[in-house]
Specification:
- By secondary structure, the protein is an all-alpha fold.
- It has 2 domains: about 70 residues; about 30 residues.
- The chain is built from 3 helices and no strands.
- The chain is elongated and about 90 Å long.
- InterPro entries: YqjK.
- It comes from Providencia burhodogranariea DSM 19968.
- This is Cell division protein FtsH.
- Keywords: Membrane, Transmembrane, Transmembrane helix.
Length: about 100
């Protein structure tokens, strides 16, 4: 290999190493920014996960309640659907009156 060729390869290698260093610095900065932006969500998730045993116990109690009184739960479901339908009707009427 000629001296000129070796020198151009060394320069190319140095350019690539410099580019990699710059990309690593950019990645570090971007990841720090990302962690700052998502910090509130991470804290909320940690609070939610800390209540996991309570949710599991509540789900067990609700399932026992449902097994003992299935008709009552079905009637509550029907009431919820009816209420949702009424709310949707009101929203449609309000939107129509605004036009």
């Amino acid at each position: 290999m000629s001296k000129n060729k070796r020198q151009s390869l060394a320069e190319k290698k140095q350019q690539l190493v410099t580019q990699i260093e710059q990309q690593r610095a950019d990645l570090t900065t971007t990841s720090r920014d990302w962690l700052q932006v998502t910090e509130p969500y991470d804290r909320s998730w940690q609070v939610f996960v800390s209540f996991k045993p309570i949710f599991i116990a509540a789900a067990g109690l609700v399932s026992v309640y449902i097994l003992r009184r299935p008709k009552r739960i079905l009637s509550l479901g029907e009431k919820a659907l009816t209420t949702w339908g009424i709310i949707r009707s009101f929203q449609g009427a309000v939107k129509t009156s605004k036009k």
